Structures are given as structure tokens and as C-alpha cells.
Amino acid sequence: MGSIAEWLASLGLSEYVQIFAENGIDRSVLRDLTDQDLKDLGVLLGHRRKMLRAIAELGDSAVAISPVAAAPVPRDDADRRQLTVMFCDLVDSTALSTRLDPEDMRKIIGAYYRGCGDIVTTAGGFIAKYLGDGVLAYFGYPRAHEDDAERAVRAGLTLVRSIGKLDSGTDEGLRVRIGIATGVVVVGDLIGEGAALERGVVGETPNLAARLQTLAEPGTVVISTSTQRLTGGLFDYRDMGLATVKGIGEAVRVWQVLGPSRVESRFEALHGTTLTPIVGRDEEIELLLRRWQRVKNGEGQVVLLSGEPGIGKSRLTAALKERLQFEPHARLRYFCSRRHQDSAFYPFIAQLERTAGLRRDDTAVQRLDKLEAVLALAIDNPGAAAPLVAALLSISTEGRYPTLNLTPQKHKEKTLSTIIAQIEGLAMRQPLLILFEDAHWADPSSLEALDQLVDRIATLPVLLIVTFRPDFISPWIGRSEVVLLTLNRLHPRQRAEMIERITFGKALPKEVTDRIIEHTDGIPLFVEELTKSVLESGLLREQNGRYVLDGPLPPLAIPMTLHASLMARLDRLAPVRDVAQIAAAIGRRFSYELISAVASMPKERLDDALEHLVSAELVFRRGAPPDAEYTFKHALVQDAAYSSLLRDRRRQLHARIATELENHFSDVADQQPEILAEHCAQAGLTEKAARLWRRAGNNTAKRAAHREASVLLEKALTAYAVLPSSANTLGEVIDIRWDLNHSLYSLGELTRNRANLENAKHLAEGLGDEVRLSRVLSRLAFTLGSLGDSVGAVEAGERALALTERRSDPDAKAWATMMLARSRYGCGDYERAMVHARQALDLLHEAPGHGLGPDEAYVKYTRVNARIWLVLCLAELGRFDEAAVLGHEATDIARGINEPEQLIFAGHGVGRMHLIQGKLDVAVQALEPALAMCKSAEFPYYVPRIASCLGAAYASLGRTDEALVLLEEAVRQAAASSLTFGHSLVLSIFGRVCQLAGRQDVALTHAHDAIDLARASGERGNEAWAWCLMGDLVSDVDATAPRVEEAHNHYRMALTIAQDLGMRPLQAQCLNGLSRLQKDGRK
Fold this sequence. Notes:
Elements: H1 4-10, H2 17-22, H3 35-40, H4 45-58, E1 79-90, H5 93-99, H6 102-122, E2 126-131, E3 134-139, H7 148-164, E4 176-191, E5 198-202, H8 204-215, E6 221-224, H9 225-231, E7 235-243, E8 252-260, H10 266-271, H11 282-296, E9 301-306, H12 313-324, E10 330-335, H13 346-356, H14 364-376, H15 382-392, H16 408-429, E11 432-437, H17 444-456, E12 462-468, E13 482-486, H18 492-502, H19 510-520, H20 524-536, E14 540-543, E15 546-549, H21 560-571, H22 577-586, E16 589-591, H23 592-599, H24 603-615, E17 619-622, E18 629-632, H25 635-643, H26 647-664, H27 666-671, H28 673-682, H29 686-702, H30 706-721, H31 727-746, H32 750-767, H33 770-786, H34 790-804, H35 810-827, H36 830-846, H37 856-877, H38 880-897, H39 900-917, H40 920-936, H41 943-956, H42 960-977, H43 983-996, H44 1000-1017, H45 1020-1037, H46 1041-1061, H47 1064-1079
Parallel strand pairs: 4-6, 9-12, 9-13, 10-11, 11-12
Antiparallel strand pairs: 1-3, 1-4, 2-3, 4-5, 6-8, 7-8, 14-15, 16-18, 17-18
Helix pairs in contact: 6-7, 13-14, 14-15, 15-16, 18-19, 18-20, 19-20, 21-25, 22-23, 22-25, 26-28, 28-29, 29-30, 29-31, 30-31, 31-32, 31-33, 32-33, 33-34, 33-35, 34-35, 35-36, 35-37, 36-37, 37-38, 37-39, 38-39, 39-40, 39-41, 40-41, 41-42, 41-43, 42-43, 43-44, 43-45, 44-45, 45-46, 45-47, 46-47
């Protein structure tokens, strides 16, 4: 019988080779394995039975099994993953072969291969292929590690040193040059047969690694920028600039690795010295500061800082260091390492080497001198301690100190005593902060030293902070001087704050922020890396001090910096990874019922696999099968599992999921069509997906969730864009854009909506579809007016009306006339606006049961809005009794419809009417609930008009401070949405409130801006209000003759326009101003 790897392969269970190797299972223990042992290793139930039967059949022959090979045997299927590829080339091997006998050359190549194999596999890599004098190695396959790029670079540096020491059989030593690159590949396909069988990798990365090694000088390691980004400050580099690499489209930046850096902290090496401001940890920092205060009073304290990877343990300790930087104290930092878990006292050795400044080229004497200088800072007799510490650091004493004749145990005890004595000596001089990081990777001897330190700490002025992951079991909990501090995940509000700090205050689109918040699950590292990844992705562009999307938001890619650690979690459960992938294709949450239908595997195997995923805390379970519901613990873990699937496999899974949902989960298909749409889209069922997304978008819009609705409708448009063009398809696209315009308008995204409607207009014109064209033109009139294009608004409205008059469709005509009424109102043409509004109501009365097909909601909209436009026009004309009746009617209809938009607009119209009439308390009663509903139901479009009217009422009632806050919000919201319609009136009101607040200069600025904007947008009524404000301001500011004349002219300008438009309330206000001037004898 061959190796254990071959034995497992003969059973079809090669996926367990790595697990057996990591747990030291060899021929001496194979027969002793029990079912529980295999279960603990993560072996599935069916596979356990198969193994146990095979072991029983071995009998005594089991002793003939050879030790398992160092390199794991890859899985039998291919997948997508991020891979770091190393290409190592033996320099001048051709010339060497001409000078040596073939047998000697064979020995050299064999030694070279063995050296490469040992170093690569020890570092966790996989030798993919020997290519004559070249070696191809993968890091991240068949098993990923969170530090694969670092492992590859360290292995490369070790290869350069180690291969150089091999005997070349000539006067010159062997030299290699190494290229390393990182990227996404497809890996795992079996290529070739027999002795030529190998695991193929498809992608740019292997080619890049091979090309990079040609750029390397003999005896050096060259890496790509992608690898350098992952290794950060762990190494020192030489920037080799941009290089043109054959087979790679663009020039690539190349880096030579000079060696490991001397950065003290791994955290600082990977994150740099400029850290993202800490968020959501105020209570934790305060706890640490309180403990530090006790330390300064002579009470030693221990804080055990626990948290999952990326939660911010190191960031919290960095924040504490910042707080204490100006306080007198000493600091010791110990860093445990995954690579040195078997190296006794490693963190203490590394700390002493850093503090002493030991260099590789130091002589033994220089090292001892530096060592004694460091010990003298804490110990009165450093010469006594130096021999022990020198031995700890493997420094030759060369007869400088007496020989230590100690047994190994006694030597260890004295070493421990010396370590503690050094710490005690420092603490006696000034308060001491000790950071012992990543205790879960500590070697046993270091934990023993830590244990002794904790025993003595109560009487020392020392704050010891020990950080570790949750799987580390601390033996010190329960002592009075020890506190356990577990870091929790960030609240969504804190995640949003962190995102804002990373973007330096530039707001992201809400859907982007929401996606980041959802996908990062409160892990600060995930928030930081995903936000940075989005900023670098090209999805966003800056506009007016914020970021905007140019199209629908695609799925967010996993940041390169997180990919390896996420895949490592999945690879630790290789035997059940296929179930994790199926679950990931279903979604973040999945039911037992659905995954069992989709997986098509024996119930026993599925149950066992799900149990393993739960035990490993990759998923949470609620309930028991068959009613169980499962949730991936991290959205990014789900993304990693999903991204590892090849596209064909994804399509197959999504098609199966879509079929199951449609046939057996009708509630999901009916109530959440967007879920079915996603699976149809991924399965290639594009047209079906588009129809489902439209249905989902409209359902969502009915709940006033317009941001989500717009995203779903944009997805429908994206789907239709890839389908063959036809009249039916183009008609569907127009209808979706019609649906989308309602959500965009509600969100205040006016510029985007103009482009949306103009696109729909061009399509309708191309089809010759007058029904759709008239609707689109009506809505385009509304949008153009909102953007300040009054002329364009009237033209579009009149064209829409002309189209409806050709058909017998009174409701369509009502909609067009109501939109035209709105455009006329904006121009100040109140009489003609009222004619259109009354015509709209009359048309609706003619056919109360007739609707606009799928747009019957707009009939209800017209019934309310036509009345409100009448109310607003009548109020400007001073016909308050008529306006009040229509206002009551509109309010009652809106309440019957019970939809936010109608209630908001009715509240605005009625409130504005009462404001003009001077009924301030009644105006407030109408405007306050309307503004509250604007915010709760996400209707930012209405905020400027309602907030400004409410602010005017507040100011007149003496609530000036509240009014100023509202007006500032109104102006800010209008700017964010590019709203111009009515904005000149908002500015006039703002100026009026500033006048009441005594801020005359600001008020004048707003008045001037209001006049300019009203003239530019053709809003004559609003221009008149602004001129009247100017008259009031100028007459108040100065009583000198020139200013009086100016005030008189302003009032006359306002009065002329008001008389022309029939604005009687404003006429009265202008005449009152002129009367004051005359009464005061100033005119």
C-alpha cells in the first residue's frame, strides 16, 4: 500500500488529505481512529463510515502506510479564487548543464526541486509544476490562508538564500530569480494524463508571475502591485517603475522585495500609520483609561481584549496609545505570530531584538553591548542577566560571561525569572503599559511567562492588555484585577459614520452606503476595506462635493485584501464547501426546505454538511430541520463562497433555484418577485427577470420605498437592454421608464429623471406610439418646470395635450391638462393655470370609472393635485373662500386614498393658502404633518417648499430660530435635487426670515438671488414677491433719499407684476409699503 494520500484517493476522499496532514495522522495512529475522531476532523458521516470500513479491512497491513506527503492533494473540481502565483527560475542552468556531467546535473536539479518543494510546502504553498529549471507554485490553493501573499514573498526570500547555499559543482553558487503575482484565476481543472497529469490555472496571474521573474536580477524577488498591496509594510521594497510585460495589455508597476521590514506591529505594517478615525468605541476607551488611572495609583490591572478578526482590537490599543502619548510612562509591545507558534519565547525575543536595535550584520560583541544597554534600563546588574538573555537570543557570549551550568529545566526557570525581572524593573521606574497581542498564536513558553506576570501584576504599576480571538481560552478570568472586554460589532449608525470618515465627509449614494452597511456586518475592517474598494472601483464620480452613481449599482466585489481570509474559512471545511456554495447561490438567508430541494443529495449528507457549517459558525440556524432557517454569519463569507463558483455552475444552480421557487414556493414568487428575478437573471432567463423586476419595483413604490423601487426598475431596464429590439420590448422599456420617473421624482433626482423621460420620449416617437408619448410628455413638462425650464415645460405640456385631443381618452387628457396647469402656475399665469386645472377636473368627472390602464394611480393623483393647483392659484389671487373649499375637498380625497404623496401635497397647498391669508396657526397645523411625512416616507422633492412655508409661519409667530433651521434645510435639499421650480420663492421666504432675525445683509443676498433665479426660470409671480421683499429691506435699512427712491422702485416693480397677474394679496402688501414711505415723509 502507498501513502495515506493514495489511500484516501483510492476511496474517492482526496479532500481530506490536508486535514489528515495538519493533524499528524500517520501509519502509527490510523487504526486508532474512532468515529468521534473523524467527526472532530470535519469528516462527513457517510465518509466516516467508508473510512472506518476501509481501516477495518486493512488489518495489520495498515502499518505499511507511509507518512502523508507534505503537500495537500487538491480537490477534483475547479473553482474561481484569488491566487498568489510564484515562478522560480534557476539562473544560467543551460550554461551549467554544458559544463557538468548529466548525472551531476540531475543531482543538482533534484536538490533544487527538493529545496523548492520543502520551502514552498512549509510556507503553506503548493508545487503545481516543475518546468525544467523552473518551478511553479500556488499560494491560496488547494487551501487558502489569510496571509497567502505574505507566505509567498517570505518563501521567495527563503528560496533565494537557501538555493544559493546548494553545491553547484562549480566555483559559482546556484542562483534563482523569482516573480510573484496575485489575482483571480480558475484553478483545479485536471489537464493531461498519466505522468503529465497536472492542475491547470487559467487567468492572467500565472503569465504575469512568469514574466516578472524575467525582470528580476539573479538572487532577487520581484512582485506585482497587487501582491505588494497585500503585503504592505511587512517588507521593504525598491520601486522598479512601470514595465511593459509581454502578454499584458497595460504597463505594470514592479517592485523588488529587499527583505522583511523592521516595522514593530503587524497591524501598522498592513494598515499604515494613518489610521481611519476610530468609531463606536468610546465606552471601551473610557474603560481602559479608568484602568490606567488605577495603575498610576499603584494598582496593577489586566484587560483581556477579545474579539473576532477585524473587529478592531489592535485599533483600540492604538487609540489608547494616542490618548497616553503625552503622559509619562514606559511601554512594552509583544506580538505573537502564526508562523512562530512553536518558537519558545518568540514575542519576548522579538521585543528584545527590536528594543536593542540588533542588526543582522552586527558582530557578537556589538550585539552583547546593545543587549546590556537595554537591560541596564530595567535591571541594576545587567551583567548577571545578560548570559541568560544572550542565550535566549542565540547570541554567542565568546567567554564574556561565566559558563552557565544549568539543566534545561533550570535554564528555562531562570529565563522566565529574568523576563519578569526586566518588566518589574521598568515598572518600578514609571507606570508601564504592556500590550501582548494575538495571544491565540502564543507559544507555550510565552504563555507561561504571561501567567507568571499576571500572578505578580496586582502590586505593580502595570496595565497589561492581552488581545486574542474568541477561540482562545484565558486562564486568568475571575481575578479581581482582571477584566474581560469583548468587542461587539458596530451598529449600522456607527458603520455609516465610519464610511463618512473614510470618504472625508463626501456623501456616498444612499444605496451604496446601505449595501456597504449590510455586507460588512459591523466588522470595522470589512467596513474600511469595502468602502475603499468601492471608491477605487470606478463606480462613482464626484459631483458637488459628493459621490454619485452613473447607473445601477452592481454587486460589490470582495476587496482583494479580504479575499484570502474569507476563502481560508471556507477551505477549512473543504468536504462541505459544495453545500456552502449552493447555500450562497440561494442567498444570505436560506431555508432547509429550499436547499434540500436544490442540492439533490442524500438527506444524511446534507444534514451532516449543514451541521458542520453551523458548528464552524459560518452559518447560524434558527429552528430544527425540516423547518430550519439558516443565515450566513457574514455576508462577505457568502460572497466568497459564491464567487468561487464557475459561471456555468452558477447558472445551473440559479436555474434550479428559480424552478423550485416558482413551482413550490409561490409565496416567495408572489410577495418578493425581486428574489425570483435575481435567480432568473443569473440563470440567463433575462426577459423573465426583467418582467419580475418591474413587478417588484412597482410593488415597492406602492409602499413609498422609492429608492429601492428605482434600483429594481433600473435592473429591469438593464435586462431589457441586452434583449433583441422589438416593438413589444421597446414598449416595455417606455413603460418601465414611466414607472421609474415616479420614484425618481419622489426622490428629488430631477436631472436623472429628465434624462430618463427624454429617453422614453425618443423611444415613443420612434415607435409612433402617441398614447405613451403623451403621457411621457406630460411628465416631462413637470420635470422641466421643476428644473427651471418654464418654456420647455409649457411646450411639452401643450404637445401632450394636443396628442390627447386626437383620442377619446378623457383621463389621459385630464393628466395632460393638469401638468400644463402646473407649468402655467410656475410662470405666474394663474388664470390660465386655473382653466387647465378645472378642465382636468371636468374631464375626470366625465368618466369617473375610466382609468389609465396600468397608471390608474395617476387618476387619483390628478383628482388631488388639480384641486391643489387651483388652491395655490386662488390664494395668489386673493380668492380665499373658493380656495378653502377646494382645499377641504383635496384633503378629504387624499385621506381617502391614504397615500403619502397626495397627503403631503394637499398639506402643502392648504398651508401655503393659509400663510398668504395670514392665518399662521392654521398654516402650521397643515404644514407640520406634511413635512414630517416628507421625511418619513422619503419625499425630499417637497421638503424645500413645505419647510420654507412652515419656516415663514414660525418666524411670523416669533419662532425665528426654528424658522432659520427649516430654511437652511430647504435650501440644502433644493440644491441636492437641482430643484429650481419655486426655489426663488424659497429664497424670498428665507430673506424674509433673515430680516425678522436681524440679519439684513444675508436677507438682501437672498432677495437678489431670488430675483435673478425667478427671471432666469420665468417665474413672474415669485419675482414679484422678491421685489416686494427688496422694497421692505431697503426701506428698513436706510432712510436716506437714494435708498428711499430705490425702495419705491422695488415696490413699484413688484406692484406692476402683481397687477398684471392679478395677485391681490401681494398688491396690498406693496401698496402698504408705499404708504409707509409716504406716511414717513420719505416719498
